[in-house]
Amino acid sequence: MATLEQATVILPRAPQGAFRNEPFIDFSQHANAHAMREALTRVGDQLGHEYALIIGGERVKTSGKIESRNPARPAQVVGVHQKAGAEHAELAVAAALKAFETWKFVSAEERAALLLGAVEIIRDRKFDFCAWLTYEVGKNWAEADADVGETIDFLEFYAREALRLAGATTPIQYPGEKNELLYIPLGVGAVISPWNFPFAIMAGMTAAAIVTGNTVVLKPSSDSPTIAARFMEVLEEAGLPPGVVNFCPGSGASFGNAVVAHPKTRFIAFTGSKEVGLDVHERAAKTQPGQIWIKRTILEMGGKDSIIVSADADFDAAVAGVVASAFGFSGQKCSACSRAIVEEPIYDAFVERLREKVAGLTVGDPAANPNMGPVVNESAMKSILEYAAIGAKEGRLVAGGKAVETPDKGYFVEPTVIVDVAPDARISQEEIFGPVLAVIKARDFDHALEIANNTEFGLTGSVYSTDRRKLDHARRAYHVGNLYFNRKCTGAMVGAHPFGGFNMSGTDSKAGGADYLLLFTQAKSVGEKL
Ligand code: NAD
Fold first, then answer.
1. Whole domain around residue 352: which residue ranges?
2. Contact yes or no for 75/410 (Cβ under 8 A)
3. Cβ 506 under 6 angstroms from ligand 1
4. Is residue 82 domain-shared with residue 116, that is, in the same domain?
5. Ligand 1, atom nearest to 250 Cα
6. Tens-place pLDDT, residues 485-529
7. Domain for residue 188, yes or no?
8. Ligand 1 atom closest to Cα of 223?
C-alpha cells in the first residue's frame, strides 16, 4: 500500500480514447465458458478466508464476525469478516478525516489515475470477479459479467468526469477579473451499499467519492462483504493511500447508525431499501453536538417497476422483455419489472405466451449457469414466498409460487406469475424483490399509464408499442427516472442511461451520468481583480 506522501507520485494514466461501455462476455464462445469454469475452480479454492477491517491502512480484527455464505449452498462459507461496531465508527471516521487533509489536495489527474489503475486490474481478473459474484450472491454468468462490466464502466466514466470537472470554469468572465469555479470535495463520506449489485454499486459510489477528493468509510452489505474486500485489495494494489477508503463491514443498526450520525461525517451515499434510506435521511438530518455542516444525503432506494404492453406492440419482443426484466437475477434488481400492465385486446394471448415462456426457465446453482439462481438469503426467500401466497389470493397464480427444493438446501424460488391482479393490490404496490410478477389488465393506453404511475415509487418503466403517439404521450406522462421504449426496463448502461428514481425511489442521483460527481463536491467561486 502507498503512503499518503506516495499518493502524489501515482503516475497519471490519461483515459484512452472516448468512453466506451465494457463489452459483455459472450459465454456461448467455448473459450469464454472455459475461462469462467476455470475461474469458478480457482475462486472456489479461496472460499472461506478471513478478512480484516481496514482502518487507516491497519488491519483490525473484532470479536464479532460476519459469515458470508453461498445462497445456492448455504453450508459453503464464502468469506469470514469482522463485524464493525459503533466503536469502530469513531476510528474509521478519524482515519478518514486524517487522510482527507492530504487527499483533498491531490490533483484530479492523480485521483483519476488511481481509478484507471484499478480498472486495469479488474479487467485482468474479470472472470475471477464474475466467479466471486456467483458464489457470494448467486449471480449466473451473464448477470455476474454485467455487474463486473458496470463496475469497470463506473470507474472509467468517473475518472473522465473528474478530469472534466477539474477543468470547469464560470459561464462568464467579469470584465477586469479572473473568475474561477472550483469543485472541491465535501469531506468524509459514509458509503453504504446493497448486496444486489455488490460490486458495481459499492465500487461506483466509492469511486465517485474518492475521485472528487473525499475520503470514505465503506460499509458493504453483510450479504456481500467479500466482493467489497476484493475491491479494497484492488484499490490498494492500484496505490490507494491509507485512510482514503476505510473498509468496515458491520451491522446496519450499530455501525451504520453510528457512522451516519457521526458529527464529522459530511455526506452519506446510500443505496438500499426505502425503509433504511428514509431512516438514514432522518438520522443524517439531526445535527449533532460539534457538527458544523448540514449533511448531504445521496439516497437511491427501492422500486415497483412496470412494463406497459400496448395492443400494437411487437408481441414476442414484449414477452421476452417482460420475462428478462422480471426474472433476471431472480427479480432482485431495483429496476426489475414486477408489474406487466397489458392492454385488454391482447391480454389473454399475452398471459398464455408468458406462461409458456416462464415454464421454460431453468432454476439452479448459478455456477452451472441456469436462467435463474437462488435468492440472497433465507429471510428473503420467506418474504418472497409470503408475497407469492398473498398474490395467489389477490389474483390467479399461473406459474410458480413455491420454493425449489435442492439437496444443498439453497434459497430457490420458482419464477412466479400472478395474473388478473388489481392495480391497488398489495403485490401491485409493495416492493417484493424476488421473482414474482403481477400481470394487470388495462382498458386502454391511458388507463395503463394511470396504473403505471399509481405507486409511491418512480424508478424504471418501459413501454412496448409501435404507435409513435403513445410513446410521445408516455415520454411526458410516465413518471419514472429511467424510462425505456421497446426494450426491457433493466440493464441501464453507464453514460447512456444515467440511473436514479423519483419519489420514494430516492433522490434521483443519476449514477453514471454527467451530474453525478457534482453531488460529491461543493463549488467554490474565486474572483481575482486583474
Ligand atoms: P437494505 O436497505 O436492507 O441495506 C442496504 C445497506 O444499508 C446495507 O449495507 C445495510 O447493512 C445497510 N443498513 C441497514 N440498516 C441500516 C441503518 N440503520 N443505518 C445505516 N445502514 C443500514 O437493502 P438491501 O437489501 O441491501 O438491497 C435491496 C434494496 O436496495 C432494494 O430495496 C432495492 O430496490 C434497493 N436498490 C436500489 C437501487 C437504486 O439505484 N435505486 C439499486 C440497487 C438496490
1. 305-493
2. no
3. yes
4. yes
5. 11
6. 999 999 999 999 999 999 999 999 999 999 999 999 999 999 999
7. yes
8. 26
State CA 210 to chain mean position distance: 18
pLDDT band at 8 (very low <50, low <70, confident <90, very high): very low
Residues with catalytic roles: 300, 334
**Euclidean distance between CA atoms 473 and 479, whole angstroms:** 11
Are 361 and 219 part of one and the same domain? no
For ligand 1, is residue 367 a contact (CB within 6 Å)?
Answer: no
Percent pLDDT > 90 in the chain is: 96
CA distance 457 to 399: 26
CA distance 333 to 326: 9
What's the mean pLDDT when you consider all of the chain? 96
Q: What is the CATH number of the domain that holds 393?
A: 3.40.309.10
The Å distance, Cα 183 to ligand 1 centre, comes to 29
Q: How far apart are CA 188 and CA 91, in angstroms?
A: 13
H or E stretch at 134: helix 126-137
| Contact 260 CB / ligand 1 (< 6 Å) | yes
331 C-beta closer than 6 A to ligand 1: no
Contact 103, 4 (CB under 8 A): yes
**219 and 225 Cβ atoms separated by less than 8 Å:** no
Q: What is the pLDDT of residues 32-50, one digit of tens each?
A: 999 999 999 999 999 999 9
Burial class (CB in 10 A: 0-12, 13-18, 19+), 252: middle
Listed in sequence order, the residues at least 6 apart from 124 whose beta carbon sits closer than 8 Å to its beta carbon are none
Asked if the structure places residue 6 within a domain, the reply is: no
Query: What's 120's domain CATH number?
Result: 3.40.605.10
How remote is the CA of residue 10 from the centroid of ligand 1, in Å?
Answer: 34
Both 65 and 84 in a single domain? yes
Shared-domain flag, residues 432 and 516 = no
Closest residue (by CA) to atom 22 of ligand 1?
A: 252
515 and 469 share one domain: no
126-169 pLDDT per residue, tens? 999 999 999 999 999 999 999 999 999 999 999 999 999 999 99
Number of separate domains in the chain: 2
For residue 277, report the distance from its CA to the centre of ligand 1, in Å. Answer: 7
Residues 339 and 249 in one domain: no
The single residue listed with the C-alpha cell 434510506 is 277
Residues 6+ apart with CB under 8 A from 14: 109
151 located within any domain: yes
Return d(Cα 431, Cα 75) in angstroms, integer.
29
> How far is residue 456 CA from its own chain's centroid?
20
Ligand 1: distance of its center to the CA of 419 in Å?
29
Which residues, listed in sequence order, are joined to residue 523 by a DSSP beta bridge? Answer: 183
Q: Is residue 24 part of a domain?
A: no
